[in-house]
Structures are given as C-alpha cells and as structure tokens.
C-alpha cells in the first residue's frame, strides 16, 4: 500500500500549463507543520505494515531547499521506526536531480523516485511550459539508476500538439531508459490552470475518450512489450477532482484503466476474427472470472462491437485460461 503525503506545488519553480495540484490531490501544503498534521491523520487509520510505502506526492520534492527536504525526511523516520511503512518514494521534476539531492535521498533510504516526464517530444514540452528539455529526463534517469534508485516515469496523453509521431518519440525514449515502471495519465482541462484559459478561448480542444484510450493503449502495449510495468492508467477519481466545476473538459473516466484493458482485449479478439475469415459464427470466449467483465467491456461494449456485423454471436464463459473458439452457424 502506498501512503500519500502531499506537498502540493512545493518546490515547483512555476506552474505548468495543465497543473493545479490543489484540485488534483485535494490538499494544500503549508510547510513541515502541515506535513506533521497529515502524518498524524494518516497514523490514525493506516495499519502498521512493513509492506507499506510512504510517498511524497503533489510537488517537486527535490526542488525544495535541501534543509526542508531533510526536515521532511527526518519527520517521517519515527513513523518508519514505529512500523507504519518501510520504503519511501517521492515525485519530482527531471531538472531537479543533483548529486546533493541524490546523497540526501540515499541517506534516508528513499527507494523510488517518480519523474514527471509527460512527453519526450521537445515541441510538446515547450507547449506544456515544462521549463526543461528531454535531455534532462535522460540525465536524471541515468543518475538515479546509477545511484541505485528505482525510477518511475509519469507520462501523459492528450497533450497539445500530440500526434502518433510524438507518442512514438516518447515511447522510444522511455523504453531506451527502461524505468522500473510507468504511470499514464490523460490530460484534463482543470479549473484554475493556464490550459483552462486556452480552452475557454478555443485554442485547445481535448481528445474524446475513445481516442485517448487508443493512445494510452499504444503506450501500454509498447511499454509492457519492453518489460516495463504500467502501474496505473488514469487519475485517482477522488471527491475533490470530481466536484462540480473542477474538470472543465477532457477524457475523464473513473475506470479509465479498465477501459484501456477492455480496448486491448477488443483488439486481440478482432485479430482472431480477421484470421477466421468471412462467414457466420458462434464465437465462444473462455476467460478466467476475474477478466470476464473487462473482456465484455463496460455495458457490454465489446460484445456489441463484435456482434455489430450481424454475422457473429458472442458467448463469454468462465474457464482457467483464455481461449476463443468459432463454430459455424446458420444465421436466420
């Protein structure tokens, strides 16, 4: 279990085009005292478990003054000693990794560093006002790996100026760096961001949900094929993010990751149908129970997709492993 401790906006030298962390994570951070209060609250409901991991999220941890970084790390040590968690992770910017940061994080036993990569296309990074180039990502990942840290890349789809080619650029770069995992988030237009202003002026139109799912699936397939786990797709659907007026536009869905997995099953079975050729069939899909709803698709969307031609009837059955069989039928 990852226990989040939010340091919203702290350390960030400026706000990127899309960012309003106070809405995304529902917290505002006001210094070490605020972190103390968060920890007291967490300790009231988190069970002591050595498999737990404490995470500093919501800001750029290593861009904080070193003294504040050390104060925060020192603060959580008592909770580690008490058995609430064992490992530490944090999120930060690629251009905020230095030998001094690395030395401090190592001294306090930080295990994982999550880098806000978003994209490796230079033009896209400029549009997002990230304040760094792709080279920073390569250098930060290399330094962290050399120091023994696990690295997670946080990526985004539905970005301004994004194309299949820019996604390929990002995928090639990430697979070359081979982080220990990735998160993929769809870009949303959130109130209080520069992107919201562009949206209101008609200068940015987000992709629809279907196309965003397709692009996320492209990254997922490429990353997993390279042996890089995708540990999350989609934003956590908490109450603050879903409050009226918070999300102005964009492909938000509370089960975004499930939509991506359903789409990938649709593609996989589409290929088997194509191999089968023309004809009328009863198609029996056998899958373990835990996959049944994903294979069917939300509201049976995949079933409707496969039966749309009028020549296939679909039946999903429980079984130990995935299998698709086709049986000739006389369509009436």
From TrEMBL:
Query: Record keywords: DNA repair included?
Result: no
Q: Does the keyword section mention S-adenosyl-L-methionine?
A: yes
Keywords assigned by UniProt, alphabetized: Iron, Iron-sulfur, Metal-binding, S-adenosyl-L-methionine
Give the PROSITE patterns listed for this entry. Answer: RADICAL_SAM (PS51918)
**What is the name listed in the Swiss-Prot or TrEMBL entry for this protein?**
Radical SAM protein
InterPro entries named among the record's database cross-references: BchE-like (IPR051198), Elp3/MiaA/NifB-like_rSAM (IPR006638), Radical_SAM_C (IPR032432), rSAM (IPR007197), rSAM_horseshoe (IPR023404), rSAM_sf (IPR058240)
- What are the required cofactors? [4Fe-4S] cluster
**SMART domains listed in its UniProt record:** Elp3
The residue stretches assigned to a coiled coil in this entry are none
GO MF entries: catalytic activity; iron-sulfur cluster binding; metal ion binding
| SUPFAM superfamilies, per the entry | Radical SAM enzymes (SSF102114)
Domain (Radical SAM core): residue spans on this chain: 1-229
Quote the Pfam families the UniProt record gives.
Radical_SAM (PF04055), Radical_SAM_C (PF16199)
């Amino acid at each position: 279990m990852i226990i989040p401790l939010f340091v919203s906006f702290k350390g960030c030298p400026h706000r990127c085009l899309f960012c309003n962390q106070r809405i995304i994570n529902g917290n505002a951070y006001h210094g070490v005292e605020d972190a103390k209060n968060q920890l007291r609250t967490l300790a009231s409901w988190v069970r002591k478990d050595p498999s737990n991991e404490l995470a500093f999220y919501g800001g750029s941890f290593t861009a904080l003054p070193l003294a504040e970084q050390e104060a925060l790390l020192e603060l959580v040590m008592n909770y580690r000693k008490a058995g609430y968690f064992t490992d530490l992770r944090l999120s930060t910017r690629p251009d905020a990794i230095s030998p001094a940061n690395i030395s401090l994080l190592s001294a306090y036993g930080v295990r994982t560093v999550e880098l806000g990569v978003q994209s490796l296309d230079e033009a896209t990074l400029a549009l997002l006002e990230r304040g760094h180039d792709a080279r920073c990502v390569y250098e930060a990942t290399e330094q962290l790996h050399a120091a023994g840290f696990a690295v997670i890349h946080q990526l985004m789809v539905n970005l301004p100026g994004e194309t299949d080619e820019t996604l390929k650029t990002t995928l090639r770069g990430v697979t070359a760096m081979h982080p220990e995992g990735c998160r993929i988030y769809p870009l949303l237009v959130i109130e209080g961001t520069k992107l919201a202003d562009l949206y209101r002026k008609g200068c940015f139109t987000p992709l629809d949900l279907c196309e965003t799912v397709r692009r996320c699936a492209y990254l997922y397939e490429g990353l997993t094929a390279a042996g890089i786990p995708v540990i999350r797709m989609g934003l956590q659907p908490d109450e603050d993010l879903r409050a009226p007026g918070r999300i102005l536009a964009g492909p938000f869905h509370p089960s975004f990751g499930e939509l991506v997995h359903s789409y990938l099953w649709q593609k996989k079975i589409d290929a088997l149908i194509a191999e089968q050729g023309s004809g009328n069939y009863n198609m029996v899909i056998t899958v373990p129970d835990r996959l049944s709803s994903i294979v069917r698709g939300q509201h049976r969307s995949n079933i409707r997709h496969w039966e749309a031609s009028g020549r296939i009837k679909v039946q999903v059955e429980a079984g130990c492993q995935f299998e698709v069989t086709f049986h000739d039928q006389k369509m009436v």
